[in-house]
Amino acid sequence: MRRAVEHRTGAALAAESPVGGRNSELAVTLSTGSGRVFCKGITTGSPLARMHRSEITVSPFLPERLAPRLLWHVEADGWLLLAFEHVSGQHADLSPDSPDLPAVADAVEEISRVSAPPASIAQRSMPEQWARALKTEIESPPPPDAAPWSAANADLLVTWAARSPAHMGGSHLIHSDLNPANFLVSDRARVIDWAWWRTGAAWVDPAFLVIRLVADGHGPEQAEKWARQFDGFADAPPDAITAFAASVLRLWERRFAGTPATNAARRWARYRVA
Q1: In the chain, how many domains are there?
Q2: Which of 93, 120, 206, 216 has the fewest CB atoms within 10 Å, counting from its CB?
Q3: Do 60 and 173 contact (CB within 8 A), yes or no?
Q4: Same domain for 229 and 146
Q5: Residues 114, 151: one domain?
Q6: Does residue 107 lie in a domain region?
Q7: What are the tens digits of pLDDT across the range 240-274?
Q8: What backbone torsions phi and psi does residue 91 show, to the nearest 5 degrees?
Q9: Which pairing describes strands 198-200 and 189-191: parallel, antiparallel, or unpaired?
């Protein structure tokens, strides 16, 4: 694999691993004879290899001002490796009055203008994926370590959550994992890690960001006000937003119990169902 990479870049002179990231077995910024390049990869037998292939599929559709360009990808010796242009920047600060918020908003607006890959290339329906994720959750009791409010309102949350997939259909490109770590902010905000992209309703990405805003110190009402600058969110049926908030809480409380994001999802769901 190293030979395959150096065939494209020239000699690898230095390597620096980033902090964070959970979906790649290898993530490294290489300093090479032809400049710096960010590489991430995974063994082809891993279940997450399909997510890397998904990122290869969507990359040609992403404008250069929105996301780092995929320069090349290579598969050799049981590894799949993707190489992106190296982009400097800091992860986004989403706290109230952060100077990063306008740049993040510009990036979210840019996503809403991008045409998703056609179904003939890839079919990645947000409502279908969300329904699959929720199926077991809706049929199960809340996890033993669920917060008291979530446990006391389990039936109400399930009723709302079950309605969520029906509201998520559409033809818009959705990143579906917008969080501070997936923005690189410098002169503008670029969006990285497109492995989980879907097609669906335009309000979905701003709705995910509402949770992240709450986690970074916004109140639910304040976070929703910020999200309403996007037409997709502003025009979404109120029941769609409430159902989504309940569904995220049901999913995350089992998978990511006690995290700031899950606590924020609970605060938002409680605000919505009230």
Answers
A1: 2
A2: 120
A3: no
A4: yes
A5: yes
A6: yes
A7: 999 999 999 999 999 999 999 999 999 999 999 98
A8: -65, 150
A9: unpaired
* Residue 113 CB partners (closer than 8 Å, separation 6+): none
d(CA 242, CA 178): 19
Give the amino acid at 50.
Answer: R
Interatomic CA distance for residues 154 and 158, integer angstroms: 6
Helix ranges (H only) for 148-230 are 148-152, 154-161, 204-215, 220-227
pLDDT range class, residue 33, cuts 50, 70, 90: confident
Domain span holding position 263: 101-273
CA 81 from centre of chain: 20
Which residue among 51, 85, 119 closes a domain? 85
Region 93-102: mean pLDDT is: 98
Same domain membership, residue 252 and residue 127 = yes
- Which residue's entry shows tokens 């179904």? 119
What is residue 90's DSSP assignment? Answer: B
pLDDT at 20: 67
CA distance 123 to 100: 33
87 CB burial (10 A radius; 0-12, 13-18, 19+): middle
- The model's confidence at residue 34, banded by pLDDT at 50, 70 and 90, is confident
Tell me the pLDDT tens digit for each residue of 137-175: 999 999 999 999 999 999 999 999 999 999 999 999 999
Domain co-membership, 79 together with 105: no
Cα–Cα distance for residue pair 129/269, rounded to 1 Å: 21
Share of the chain above pLDDT 90, in %: 87
Is the model's pLDDT at 22 over the cut of 80?
A: no
| Average pLDDT along the chain | 94
